[in-house]
Amino acid sequence: MIDLKKIWQDVCQKIIGLEGVNAISYSVWIQPLKPVCVKDNELILLAPTQNMKHVVNRSYREPIKAALKSTGSFFTDIRIISEDETPFYTDEIAEYSEKESVAEERPSQFIARYTFDNFVVGESNKLAYHAAQSVAKSPGVSDNAYLSFNPLFLYGGVGLGKTHLLHSIGNYVNEHSPELKVLYTPTEQLTNDYVEAISNNRNEKGVFNLHAFREKYRTVDMLMLDDVQFLQKRTGLQEVVFHIFNDLYQAGKQIVLTSDRPPSEISTLEDRLRSRFEGGLIADIGTPNLEMRIAIVRKKMVLEKIAVNDDVVNYLAEHIDSNIRELEGSLAKVIFFAKLKGLPYPDIETAKEALKNSVQKKSGIDSSDILRAASEYFGIPQSDIISKKRTKDVVEARMIAIYIIYEMLSLPLVTIGQIFGGRDYSTIIHSRDKIASKIKQDPATARAVKDIKASVSE
Ligand code: ADP
Ligand code: MG
Questions:
Q1: Using 50, 70 and 90 to split pLDDT, how confident is the model at 104?
Q2: Could you tell me which residues belong to the region Domain I, interacts with DnaA modulators (predicted)?
Q3: Average confidence score pLDDT of the chain
Q4: What angle do CA 202, 207, 209 make, to 5 degrees?
Q5: Is pLDDT above 70 for 225?
Q6: CA distance 217 to 210
């Protein structure tokens, strides 16, 4: 008998990172699917709603098929169905359900390879790592009477391991305290749930109303909310989150939050929620240094059971320095190139060839890339940034863009002045120096510079 659950678990493990599937889309669209049977060599997956069926069909068919293929399964096609179609499959479902009930174990909502063991610890993430471990070992309880880990708030740029740590907590608790109910939710999904809940309330049909929404989130032992910078300022949403937070907190339940920036810089956050988010431990995750990047590449090689020369490891770690997701992707690419060439393991030439574009792109940054990134970051049109406008936010964006262009491109001041609508070079010096000193005093400015730089280097 085919073990559908096992096959589906393997698919889930392989799918993240395939084109169009990140941790968020995975937990919103892929994870809720249920393998129900195989018919005519197709794996039949049940989607919880019609809408989900359509979205998965439209956007995730190919990655699911690719992941299925890579598990070595003999059936390589899939069909997504919704509840009303299950009658067409009753025979097949019956055939599989026996197995299902034997193996009935709650399928984990956590990605199996995201564990503490697989997480490389270094200077840039050790506080976050140890705090996450402490929370996993004693949720809701503080190690130290003077230091509360509730909530634990982890923040850092994209691809630096926040989601990995949340899943590590989840996997750890599932293993060591299976009686505890842990809920992991990307903020996007919480928002979707909320929207569904309030619309059902209005129509008075359906059962998932605001009450059910609150119950879902406040009846757990641990709530992990990923990427709270996406918590929209939407009537009622932050209020209900605030109440859920309080209920959990007062009941001594653990709350873990992540974001790409600290609470103080999430401008869409209501003050009372911000102060709740700041009430426990805030730990940041920074970009890894070279030594750590080398350790990460080595770790991935061990996990994937592949051999790579030291010079290839060093090349990767030296050139891919923005985030860990990119580092992983680059390693995968190098390995893939070596396979195509029929090499037993990648050599340095193959690595250079595989990463030609990403490495070259980095040195090929120009001022328009920086202007574009600054414009996106601040939500101010590029034409305003280079104009003579003197409103506060435009001036701020302009000075930061000047500073970054100066820093990253080392262009002559006169040239930078020309880029900014023919400004005098003394104006450029003034902006540059102003931001250089502001970075030291104002975390928001420092973060803006860091984020814009990171986004042009991507
Ligand atoms: P974030 O949620 O911060 O955007 P993720 O947790 O999704 O980042 O991490 C991106 C990828 O990098 C994941 O595949 C994760 O396993 C890996 N990763 C991140 N940090 C580490 C680390 N310290 N050690 C090993 N792998 C890591
Ligand atoms: Mg994440």
A1: very low
A2: 1-85
A3: 87
A4: 50
A5: yes
A6: 11
Q: Which residues contact 333 (CB under 8 A, 6 or more apart)?
A: 354, 355
**Residue 185 Cα distances to 48, 366, 375, angstroms:** 17, 38, 31
- On the question of pLDDT at 206 being above 60, the answer is no
Q: Does any ligand 1 atom lie closer than 6 A to the CB of residue 293? A: no
Residue 289 DSSP symbol? -
327 C-beta closer than 6 A to ligand 1: no
How far, in Å, CA of 31 to CA of 28, rounded?
Answer: 7
Q: Where residue 101 falls among pLDDT bands split at 50, 70, 90?
A: very low
CA atoms within 13 A on the CB side of 132: 31
For the chain, the residue count is 458
**Would you say the C-alpha torsion 174, 178, 180, 185 has a positive or negative sign?**
positive
> Which residue has 């936010």 as its token pair?
393
Tell me if 286 is assigned to a ligand binding site: no
Rounded Cα–Cα distance for residues 420 and 107 (Å): 56
Residue 311: what pLDDT?
A: 84
| Helices and strands: H and E segment counts in the chain | 22, 8
Q: Name which of 322, 267, 330, 328 is nearest 451 in CA terms.
A: 322
| Alpha carbons within 13 A on the beta-carbon side of 411 | 24
Instruction: Determine if the pTM surpasses 0.70.
Output: no
Most confident of 5-19, 89-103, 246-260, 318-332: 246-260
pLDDT in tens, 390-427: 999 999 999 999 999 998 877 778 778 888 988 888 89
